[in-house]
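hi! just following up on the protien thing from before. the input was this:
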Amino acid sequence: MINMLNENIFKRLVHQNVKLLKVLFVDINGELKSVFIPDNCFKRALQNELMIDGSSICGFSSIDKADLYLKVDSKSLKIIENKNEAYIFSYVCKSNGENYECDSRYVLKKQIDDYWEKHKFIFNVGFEPEFYILKKQNGDLIPIDDKNYFDLSELSSKIRCEISDEFNKLGYKVGPNHHEVGHGQNEVNYEYMEAMAAADAILIFKQVAKIVGERNGCIVSFMPKIYSDLPGNGLHLNCSITSDGENLFDGKESEYRRYFVNGLLKHSKSLMALTNSTINSYKRTSSGGEAPQYAFSSLANRKAMIRIPDAKGDKARIEIRTVDALCNPYLTIACIMALGLNGINNKESFDLKKTKLPNSLEESLRYFSRDKLVKETFKERLFKKYIEIKRREIIDFNNQITEYELGRYLNK
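and the predicted 3d structure came back as:
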């Protein structure tokens, strides 16, 4: 039996002659997963009858409790213009219909619901994705051009505009886009939106960018640090809270903003295990340049972990500059919401002295594993799973013999 919302989705799909529905979900790392549904199976998908093997998904069930189901999120439907295709995000559920505790979207949904039900708050997010466009040359991957910040580049601008155009076709509103500081590095900005839609959108944006890159014989990479001598890729996260149409972060003396920021700064070291969730992430944040290395906030200093842009009204916000695009956006936003709200509720103070941020995933994970508020946000099972998977990643990396080691030690 299809509920009323999903019945409306079915009618839209039929009316717009959609032949293929892509049902999307994510694993614990924020990696996009999908099931493709032909039009003769739409009703089955909309009745939440799609089963997956959770034991084959990173961070999900063990083999003896593997059967999980996908419950589509009606708000996330996007129909792709002129392609007879659509996609829709889903929540992961257990066989009894309950939400699965290790589903990242569900973790974020709980925070969104908590904001609204207890405080009538809406959390808004805007991402700024940076990426390199690379080409193959003599067996190596090199930047597509040698241009710098805001330079004109026929090669980069063609692909960047294609990415923007494809993203626009999905119903997103693309804003200013430009060449970044690094050779072949670009940035595309798009609309500010509510938290869940923003998390969905960044994953779709990454997918669109990679497809457009492949179509042009290139690789689009969001890896935080690709070249030691060029800037890294960030994913600056802008956010604010609105209540009854009012931006609570507006005004130089906004107490909501101050306490929210202090809540994040107090937990900055553990938060980095989410915002900077890979070994490579710390090669960006530890390399100097404009990547933040200290936990402090500033109106202008772009080395700050949190910058307060000179903006007013509905554009007033904070910018969290540590974040990179390999994070799980759902868990990252959920944790930011929880830590910030805790700061507001407790009128959190923070020592203005700059605190050094972790230099490695191993270090941030140590703080993360001891953070009771983060554990409470994620609940024990997901919390333990995340730590286990990240520790395994560190062990796997440490077991590798790198070219650097061979070059430095082979002939000693």
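The radius of gyration is 22 Å.
The chain is about 35% helix and 25% strand.
cheers
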